[in-house]
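Q: What would this chain look like folded?
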Amino acid sequence: MENSTEINALVKLLDDPDPEVFHHVEQRLLEHGQSVIHFLETEWEKSLDTLLQERIENIVHQIQFKSIREDLKLWYHSGAFDLLQGALVINRYQYPDLDEQKVINQMEEIKREIWLGLQYEMSSVEKIKLINHIFYTVYGFSGNTKNHHDPQNSYISQVLESKKGNQISLAIIYSTLAQKLDIPVYGVNLPQHFILGYIDESKIEEHEFGVLFYINAFNKGAIFGKHDVDQFLRQLNLQAQPGFYAPCSNVEIIRRILRNLISAYENLGSTEKVEELKELQDILTDTAIQP
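A: My prediction, written as structure tokens:
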């Protein structure tokens, strides 16, 4: 009760013309963290003062951004095991009120459709063809070729709604669905492209890096082989490196989402967003406490 009385009193002082008073009030509200957001949003709705609304928006954003930084650090330092969770933290940068349960439910619904068609004796290629049928034909997912640089392509919640995404967001959804069904599909960090590999650890002797074949999530789940990757690298005049063929870490995938977003916002001239996303990028390049 005391807290809400103090918060209400602070909110009432937000339009104080004295910069020192405002700075003090702002600092106190930031210290309270998430608990003040409801009060601030209520005040914003009641107010017609554009300066006050701007101040409220700025404080709310600072609190939410601090929460994203902390959650990304926690995800990274505790091993970055859940790729979808990492993507959802980044998603909250643009959509702070994201209903994560809704995203998880949407994924579960698609997973269930695939599961209903799975049969024990299916080969690895047949399993991928089933995923492709459900994902691209039944649900209508596709690569966003018309507006490839739109930042919305990098936010999982938006891709699930619009059914359009870039290479990496479609690959994250695709591989998450596959892994939930014990189908070993993992991200492969190819330059200028992001693909998936179907991994069979038991065949690592026969198949380099344990990859049976590759999948292009951006192109309706097209299946291709190592020689196609070789050819792609030749076209780019790049020397083949193991990292271009083998599964990459979840941290590398989230870093790549951030790189895409930075590039997208640079194109739009959103310098503040670019700076903040670089801050998030720095969290994932902190090698001092590597998991």
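The beta strands are 142-143, 164-165, 185-188, 195-199, 211-216, 222-224.
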